[in-house]
Amino acid sequence: MTASNQRYLHTMLRVRNLDASVDFYTRLMGMTELRRREVPDGKYTLVFVGYGDEASHTVLELTYNWGQDDGYDLGTGFGHLAIGVADVAWRFPARNRIIAALSDVVVVVECHSRGGSFHTVQAA
User: What does the pLDDT look like over 17-37, one tens digit per residue?
Assistant: First the structure.
């Protein structure tokens, strides 16, 4: 794995006030709203902002969880860093061994004999 086949895609932050957050990043920081997606079943809205298109620039994902108007405790607003990699499937066995090693118990209700859950159980 080399840096040439990986790319830092975005950082996700949870926000209390979506409109104020979008205003801050677009009007005050000079970013552009790239896309917006409302997910009624999940009760959240995603807004991606950045200084260029997502194909060639790292962007910021703002996540507003509907009804979460009290804000977040220190450290709980950060969501994730998204890294794009080529051929991610080869990483699954190592991930499964790590999950098994960090777990006191691994319980799988149902899985395919060649699925990731089955491999995690085998590693436990």
Answer: 999 999 999 999 999 999 999
Residue 85, beta-bridge partner list = 6
85-to-12, 23, 59, 68 alpha-carbon distances in Å: 18, 32, 16, 32
- Round the average pLDDT of the chain to a whole number and report it: 84
3-state secondary structure the chain: CCHHHEEEEEEEEECCCHHHHHHHHHHHCCCEEEEEEEECCCCEEEEEEECCCCCCCCEEEEEEECCCCCCCCCCCCEEEEEEEECCHHHHHHHHHHHHHHHCCCCCCCCCCCCCHHHHHHHHC
- Residue among 100, 102, 101 nearest 116 (CA): 100
Q: What does the alpha-carbon distance between residue 61 and residue 80 come to, in Å, rounded to a whole number?
A: 9
95 burial (CB, 10 Å; 0-12 / 13-18 / 19+) is: middle
